[in-house]
Amino acid sequence: MAVIWGLDLREMQWSKFKSSYMFNREYHLRRTKMVVYQLAMIFCVCSESVGTAALSEYVDQQEFIGNLNNLAVVYNDDFVGIASYNIFVGIAVATIFGAAFFFDLFWPERHESASVHLAWKICAVIMCIMALGDALALTIIVATKSAYVTGVDAPTATRLLRQYLKPTLVYKHNAKAIASAVLLWPGFVATVASTIILFLSHRHDAEFGPKSTRAREAEKQHGADMQNGEFGPKTTRAREAAKQHGTDTQNETDTQAV
Prior knowledge:
- The protein is mainly α.
- Helix content is 72%, strand content 4%.
- It is built from eight helices and four strands, in the order ββααβααβαααα.
- Strands 1-2 form a two-stranded antiparallel sheet. A two-stranded antiparallel ribbon has the order 3-4.
- α2 runs antiparallel to α6.
- The longest helix has 39 residues.
C-alpha cells in the first residue's frame, strides 16, 4: 500500500482496535491518551449534536411564526448563534484529537519534526480557548436569556406561539439546550487534559522516544541478555545440548591428556 507523509497505510488494521493492543503499556501514556482523547471527542460531539437538535427547533419556530404573520419576528438569534458556534467547536475538537487518537493508534512510532509538534501544540491550545469560550457563552445564554416575539402586540404574539408550542421561549426550560451546555463542560475539561497529555507526550518523545520506561527497560535487559549469551536463537533444549556437548568434549580432552 501507499506511504503518505511517511505513514505506511498497511498499519491501518482493524486488529489494532482490540483492547489488548489499544491499551498496552508499550508506549508512553498510551492508555491515558486512548481514554482522554476519546472523552474530549465524545462529550464535545454529543454537546453539539444535542445543541443542533435544539437549534433546528428554534429555526423552525422562526420560520413558522413568520409564515403565519409576516409582521411577527421571533428573536432567538442569540441561541442560534452560540449553537452554531458549538457545532464548529465540536467538529474542530473531534478533528484535532481524533487525528491524534488515530495517529497514536496506528503509527505510535512515527517520526514527527519539531514544526509538526509545534503545530499540534498550537492547535490543541486553540481548541482549549475555543471550548472555554463556547462553554461560557452557551451556559450564560441558556441560563439567563430567552427568545421573544417582536413586530406584533402581546396578545397576537401569544396566539401565534400557541400554534407552535415547542420549543419554549425560555432557554433554561429547554431540556436539549440544558443538556448541550452540561455536556460541553466535561468536554472542555477533557480537551484541556488532552492538551496537557499531548505536551507531556511530545516532551517524552523528544527525550526518550515513544516507548514507555517499562518497554525501554525490557528491551535493554533483553539486549544485555543477548550480549551475555544467556539467550539466543536456539531453544532451551538446544542450548542445554550444546552445553552438554561442550562438557563431554572437555572431558574427552582431559582423558586423552592423561
